[in-house]
Design the sequence.
């Protein structure tokens, strides 16, 4: 029974954070949405921050699983990186909680939200770093600082997918893959 309550609390908190943001979510709201007493929440989580951390950790795992789901061993390394990055950004742009957190960070600058969004970015970079190091080890890409390459890949990808489209015709998936290959991966 206890794991069900815990799951209900996490689902309710995710819903509340997605609808109202981090700052406006209260433990009373979460308890009401989960249909449990407020004290029940505290048997599983010591505070709102710990509950938020649990939700973000789960979100990162889901995001990485989405990236892994599109990687194909028979595809070129650069294509796999492109597909993984595309899936991560697609996940981020479609996941209601991520949308709300990015909005809250822009509009209110909530420190806890900024820290968690930075944590998400750091996890994505760590994931990419593993892939880059594997690519270097296999000889798929030339040796380089894998953390810097991972950071640049993520930032470049975001810029090409999001920022470019604000004032230009959107790039195709193939164009983005070719740009990444040409600038950073040089196969």
Sequence:
């Amino acid at each position: 029974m206890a794991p069900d309550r815990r799951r209900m609390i996490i689902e309710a908190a995710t819903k509340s954070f997605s609808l109202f943001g981090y700052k406006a979510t209260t433990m009373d709201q979460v308890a009401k949405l989960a249909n449990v007493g407020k004290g029940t929440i505290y048997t599983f989580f010591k505070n709102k921050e710990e509950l938020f951390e649990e939700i973000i950790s789960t979100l990162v795992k889901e995001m990485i699983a989405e990236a892994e789901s599109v990687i194909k061993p028979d595809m070129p390394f650069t294509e796999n990186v492109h597909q993984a990055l595309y899936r991560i950004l697609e996940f981020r742009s479609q996941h209601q909680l991520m949308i709300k957190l990015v909005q809250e960070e822009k509009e209110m600058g909530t420190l806890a939200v900024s820290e968690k969004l930075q944590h998400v970015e750091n996890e994505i970079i760590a994931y990419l770093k593993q892939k880059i190091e594997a690519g270097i080890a296999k000889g798929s890409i030339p040796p380089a600082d894998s953390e810097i390459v991972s950071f640049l890949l993520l930032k470049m990808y975001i810029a090409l997918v999001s920022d470019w489209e604000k004032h230009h015709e959107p790039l195709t998936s193939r164009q983005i893959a070719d740009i990444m290959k040409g600038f950073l991966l040089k196969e």
Notes: The longest helix spans residues 111-138. Residues 49-185 form a domain with the Tetracycline Repressor; domain 2 fold (CATH 1.10.357). The mean pLDDT is 90. The radius of gyration is 19 Å.
